[in-house]
Design goal:
The chain is α+β, with helices and mostly antiparallel strands. It has one domain. It contains 3 helices and 2 strands; from the N terminus they run αββαα. Keywords: Signal.
């Protein structure tokens, strides 16, 4: 009997989450060549990404990585910093989930 479940190790070993941060998040200006690139690696090899539980765990890991890469918009910060952090978080989360979908689609196409 062939299983419809794709092992997590085949779907993705890791998802790399990268986001462009404005240096020191001082101003919400366009990103330049001087921008810092922050990267977090999110492990997925131990997850069954075809299950709701596996996807829930992955999303929690991505959220943690987004926090590490972009920071949080809590505490006493300027409006510009809050906008930059929120933009970074949205971009990083979207990129990470897109990477998971793309890799999953590639693995399904190879079957």
């Amino acid at each position: 009997m062939k299983s419809n479940m794709i092992p997590a190790a085949i779907i993705a070993t890791t998802v790399v989450l990268a986001a462009m941060l404005i240096p020191a998040l001082a101003k919400a200006a366009p990103v330049t060549e001087d921008a810092t690139i922050q990267v977090a690696v999110v492990s997925t090899g131990d997850l069954n990404l075809s299950s709701d539980e596996g996807m829930s765990t992955l999303k929690a890991r991505i959220s943690g990585a987004v926090n590490r890469v972009c920071g949080t918009s809590t505490g006493t910060i300027s409006l510009e910093e809050r906008i930059a952090i929120n933009a970074c978080r949205a971009k990083a989360r979207t990129a990470a989930l897109a990477a998971v979908r793309t890799h999953s689609d590639q693995m399904l196409a190879q079957r």
